[in-house]
Amino acid sequence: MPALKRPRGRAAILGADPVMARLVNAAGRCGLKPHARSSAFETLARAIASQQLSGIVARRILDRLCALHAPAPFPQPAAVLANSDAELRAVGFSFAKIRALRDLAGKSLDGTVPDDSALAAMEDEAIVERLTTVRGVGRWTVEMLLMFQLGRPDVFPVDDFGVRNGFRLAYGLKQLPHPRALALYGERWAGHRSAAAWYLWRAVDLHREGALPPPLRPAPRLRRPRRKTRAHAHK
């Protein structure tokens, strides 16, 4: 009877890549920890408020929104829908963000945005597909929710500038990797891609501190997936 294969843990999978192994050694234990104190509605509302603004300005807007609904720590969807445009404009939201916030609140009430218990039972891609139907919510925003709120272990945000730049620095590339090429390379970390993303973020910090291990040579050649031809697309 053939011996059963033992499942490979995160250390084995990340350590099989020599560059990632050195990065793990330099960065230490992965500090990626979920913070499930907020609802999905609150997380996405905060993300909408923060778009294209500095952290300080976004916090001021959110503080004023919360003050409008005190003593509740954060307004519920129905309460947001009850606010007039004038009230939300006075808080600091643009008209575009008001439309996005109202869309989020409405879809939270009708179940398009599932409640937290329902989200916990859904697959990652199903969550991405559902939540990106909300105006102003893109894939990256949902990936951050998956990683930092739901604690999903296999999320790889290849469109994130920090992840791409960390890969460039750690692997000694001249240019940022293309997201699709990075996704292909990251398949070797399947099951633990959230941790891989965290270490690539740390690579940027280590580079800034002068503590990033020098890249191994030669640098990897990243494959970009071929685009489907029109003929293949209709097969």
Notable features of this structure?
disordered N terminus; 14 helices; 235 residues; mainly alpha; Endonuclease III, domain 1; 2 domains; Endonuclease Iii, domain 2; 0% strand
What are the segments in which pLDDT stays under 50 over at least 5 consecutive residues? 1-7
For the residues shown, what is the average pLDDT?
90
Q: What portion of residues belong to β-strands?
A: under 5%
Main beta sheet: none
Rg to the nearest angstrom?
Answer: 21 Å
Query: What structural category do the secondary elements indicate?
Result: mainly alpha
User: Count of helices?
Assistant: 14
Give the N-to-C terminal Cα separation: 42 Å
Give the overall silhouette: elongated
**Total count of strands:** 0
**What is the string of helix and strand elements?**
HHHHHHHHHHHHHH
Describe this protein's structure.
The chain is mainly α. It folds into two domains: 1-34 and 153-235, Orthogonal Bundle (Endonuclease Iii, domain 2), CATH 1.10.1670; 40-148, Hypothetical protein, domain 2 (Endonuclease III, domain 1). It is 56% helix and 0% strand. The protein is built from 14 helices and no strands. Helix 2 crosses helix 13 and helix 9 (124-131) packs across helix 10. The protein is elongated. It starts with 9 loop residues before the first helix and ends with a helix. Mean pLDDT is 90; it is low at 1-7.
